[in-house]
Amino acid sequence: MAEFAAVSRAGDLGEGEMRAFEVRGTKIAVANVGGAFHAFDDTCTHVGCSLAEGDLEETTVICPCHGSEFDVTSGAVLQGPAREPVATYETRVEGDNLEVKG
Amino acid sequence: MTETFVIVGAGLAGGGAAATLREEGFDGRVVLIGAELQPPYERPPLSKEYLRGESPFEQAIFQPRDFYAENGIETRFGVRVTGIDAAEKVIELDNGESVPYKALLVATGGQNRRIPIPGIDLEGIYGLRTVADSDRIRAEISPGRKAVVVGMGFIGSEVAASLRQLGVEVTVVDRNTVPLRRVLGEEVGRVVEGIHRDHGTELIFEDKVAAFEGAERVERITTQRGHRIECDFVVVGLGVEPVTDMLAGTGVEIDNGVVVDEYCRTGVEGIYAAGDVANHYHPVFKRHIRVEHWQNALKQGPAAARNMLGENEPYDEIPWFWSDQYEHNLQYAGFHTEWDELVVRGSTEERSFVAFYRKDGRVLAAVAINRGRDLRRSIPLIKTQEEIATVKLCDLDVDLRTLTGAASLR
What we know:
The structure holds two protein chains of two kinds.
Chain A: E1 4-9, E2 18-23, E3 26-33, E4 36-41, E5 55-57, E6 60-62, E7 69-71, E8 77-79, E9 88-94, E10 97-101
Antiparallel strand pairs in A: 1-10, 2-3, 3-4, 4-9, 5-6, 6-7, 7-8, 9-10
Chain B: E1 4-8, H1 12-23, E2 29-34, H2 67-70, E3 73-77, E4 81-85, E5 90-93, E6 98-100, E7 103-106, E8 110-112, E9 125-126, H3 131-138, E10 146-150, H4 154-165, E11 169-174, H5 181-198, E12 202-205, E13 209-213, E14 220-223, E15 228-230, E16 233-236, E17 240-242, E18 258-260, E19 271-273, E20 278-282, E21 287-289, H6 294-308, E22 320-325, E23 328-334, E24 341-347, E25 352-359, E26 362-369, H7 372-384, H8 390-394
Parallel strand pairs in B: 1-2, 1-7, 2-3, 7-19, 9-16, 10-11, 10-16, 11-12, 18-20
Antiparallel strand pairs in B: 4-5, 5-6, 8-17, 13-14, 14-15, 20-21, 22-23, 23-26, 24-25, 25-26
Helix pairs in contact in B: 1-6
């Protein structure tokens, strides 16, 4: 059963930033887009590179290895070579804590 | 009367062009002709994930199999062109069909270069271009078997890495001093050489195969410098030549592929080309370039299709590709054949760097090993062709995105 887990202080992830956290054994990336936090699988569905090591352009994350692009709000593929979407997760801010439901 | 657009070549460029014609609302007849039996598919996995058995062929298929029928695209797979009458605008196929066209896109790609080496027709010697080729090589793979890879370009390097990863004993023979020397040069090639040596690949440079020997199957190769290497199978990767023979007599200029302008147009009315076969005038590099990579096929096919519909859209994407070898990710962007300065950002020893190929102060191209984010951030620098100070390119604290346009003046 997925539960919220604190991954960071909310203030430590600035606007336009993205970072990967380990949540119960899964690497989950969180992106701050204009103050809204979006969480998604950090592992690219193409060959498994870390998406948090790529670039974030507004709501699009770009894989550093092969250029696949995903919408961080839905996980949808915007540009191949990836075919499968990445999973997304709920986030919330509780007090100072940024939490991910994973 | 209904207009017919014909696309010859059902790879990524041809398949993408067909899809784009429909997306853009073209309601005439679209005929997609391909020599292979499969619908358009992506070739990068053939030397990597697919060859290693990690991903199925269905994942490489470009559009779902029923996409073409659903979109009213007529397909002729396993069919070849026997002639083109450019004056009458009719194309003849080896199934006996004649198809009149209003516009014709040539996206026939390339075929492996065959070098006349004694014994080349023995069994157990493979090139790699199609999924059928990849299947034949796959069937030879098992731990402890011995392979020779001839040629250390991108295909040779990737195949050597995949074979090693599956426990095959690999010896490579290449005429240059380091892998990938023709494209990447000595300094970067040495880094790739080190990666292959660390994985136990035997590397023989500055040598060529003299003969393939064996009774029916290849059993060994001999080299011009006297090496004699026993092997169970051979993969030859000595480059690709564009497939242009069906254009003979049409008046289309052939020079290192089908010569096209920035709109993917040949000099003959109604005939266009895209993908590996096209020697395309690139407005950024101000010269014709021919690119044999995934992204070019993916983007140039649709660009050609839009121009067939009269959109007058110059194709100016910066060429970009990747090559995964073992656990390392190599990427290249731009286009260069010569350079006067190689500027390195990061560390070649640690195999984490971007190297910029510069000429007259401008970055023509960049290659990265395990530094993909920086490589992608370099693409605007290549596109704008501004002069950028070496010290800024090398400073790891400088975000490369800040070096172009108005931002670079700060």
